[in-house]
Specification:
Layout: H1 2-19, H2 23-32, E1 36-47, E2 50-61, E3 65-72, E4 79-82, E5 87-91, E6 101-104, H3 123-131, E7 135-141, E8 150-157, E9 168-174, E10 180-187, E11 190-202
Antiparallel strand pairs: 1-2, 1-11, 2-3, 3-4, 4-5, 5-6, 7-8, 8-9, 9-10, 10-11
Helix pairs in contact: 2-3
Length: 211
């Protein structure tokens, strides 16, 4: 009887520990198991009176290889490759597609409306933002997004002026993969950027030569 009691107690403790596990910790653990991945990113962002809607295809390989292509929206056909550092090799769309150039990672042709760069789209970068200590992090249940049950991790930014005036940053993490399916950033009550991560393929076998 005593053995049964202890076995039940241990099982209960294990269940309690799992139920109270941090969604951000699960995200970290999931990211540690990934060497490379690809996805599409559906983005809406605004800056003052300007708005921008784009679809991207994105590929990433640890530690610092990234490739992005704009498949819809302003700049369609443009893309760039990053090998770490502060430059990217890119091309514009249309008749200039075949012309490759090296530019600063912060060049106006290589950033989004709000100034985000190719490396900031990666799951690893997003994880780092929420682990950086630049704000107060809280967690809770999330909504179902494209059929995926989620947890939310929300961060209230301590100094918005050093974070492009973003006051709150929220990620929705899939309960099954523990990876982002959506990220939303706010200035006060106004949502200024939403990214949806779709068609995610984990460890598809990307090689350095693919970048």
């Amino acid at each position: 009887m005593r053995r049964v009691f202890f076995a039940c107690a241990l099982f209960a403790l294990a269940c309690t520990a799992r139920a109270s596990a941090s969604a951000l910790t699960d995200f970290n653990d999931a990211w540690n198991k990934i060497d490379n991945y690809s996805c599409s990113i559906v983005v809406h962002e605004s800056l003052g009176s300007q708005t921008q809607d784009r679809h991207y295809d994105y590929w990433f390989k640890k530690p610092n290889l990234a490739h992005i292509e704009i498949t819809s929206g302003p700049g369609k056909g443009s893309g760039s490759v990053w090998h770490g550092g502060d430059t990217v090799r890119g091309h514009q769309g249309g008749f200039l597609h075949g012309i490759q150039m090296n530019v600063s990672i912060n060049d106006g042709r290589a950033v989004t409306l709000r100034g985000d760069t190719i490396n900031t789209a990666s799951f690893g970068f997003i994880l780092g933002v929420f682990q950086s200590g630049i704000g107060t992090v809280t967690e809770g249940p999330g909504e179902t997004i494209d059929g995926a049950a989620t947890d939310t991790v929300s961060m209230k930014i301590t100094n918005p002026s050093t974070n492009k005036n973003v006051t709150r940053d929220v990620i929705y993490l899939s309960k099954s993969t523990h990876l982002p399916v959506r990220r939303m950033r706010y200035e006060g009550d106004t949502m200024v950027k939403q990214e949806d991560f779709v068609n995610v393929k984990l460890n598809p076998g990307l090689k350095d030569s693919d970048f």
